[in-house]
Amino acid sequence: MQGLILAGGRGSRLAADGVEAPKALVEVGGRPQIVNLIETFADLGCETITCMVRDGITVDTPGPAVVRTCRTPSSLHTLVAGLAIVPAGPVFCSMVDTVMPPADWHRLYRGVTERLAGGSLAVLAVTPFVDDELPLYVTRSADGLATGIFDTTPPPSAPLLVTGGVYGLSPEARRLATVAVASLHRMRAFLRLLVELRAPVATVEVPRIIDLDHKRDLDAAERWLTARAGDEQ
């Protein structure tokens, strides 16, 4: 499994809250978030780790991670730019602002690996924890395959789940991304396309994922991870 971290965004909402550091470099647990993710991916067992960071950002990365700069208009474009660099094979991909405790990262990685090995075109991390200004809702079948992706709340009968910014991509999904970027301009549009193609897009659920969009998210992540670490001691 190849690892890919997407950090091509400007972090404008964090900046509006007075956070001067780029999103990739905001500190969680006393270290830059991108360093946390690189070490997480290494611990998970990713064969390679590629980081796509916004042009102008200098990242001192640990270990063998490959860092490439980009100036892309959306996360989908950043994904495709990264896929052009990542070696062949399935990809475990995360947005740089995704925060989870180690146990949930391992649970998710195992689930993504198993689903891709079982023939899924792609895998979406989903969570019932909804704390996003623009959540992307997912409905799924009893066997965990995504049946719909929505910008608005789905029918009340469906369990409330949202995407969590982590994806598993098969080689075929990688190919489709490079084709779709010519006409689609957002990651959510690409994910919706995969589901609409009726290809097997699996889901793996974790209890909670925090996206670092605002200063309050940084504070919440610090409190949450500190509490989880104390519970595990």
**Shape call:** globular
Low-confidence stretches: none
Beta-strand fraction estimate: 25-35%
Number of domains: 1
The tally of helices reads: 7
Series of secondary-structure elements, N-terminal to C-terminal: EHEEHEEHEEHEEEEHHEEH
CATH top level is Alpha Beta
- How many E strands? 13
Strand order in space, largest sheet: 5-4-1-6-11-8-12
Report on this structure.
This protein has one domain: Alpha-Beta Complex (Spore Coat Polysaccharide Biosynthesis Protein SpsA, Chain A), CATH 3.90.550.10. The chain contains 7 helices and 13 strands. The strands form 4 sheets. Strands 5-4-1-6-11-8-12 form a 7-stranded mixed β-sheet, sandwiched between helices. The chain has helices spanning 12-16, 33-44, 75-83, 102-117, 171-180, 187-196, 215-232, and strands spanning 2-7, 27-28, 31-32, 48-54, 66-70, 91-95, 98-99, 122-127, 137-140, 146-150, 162-169, 201-205, 210-211. Strand 9 (137-140) and strand 10 form a beta hairpin. By secondary structure, the protein is of the alpha/beta class.
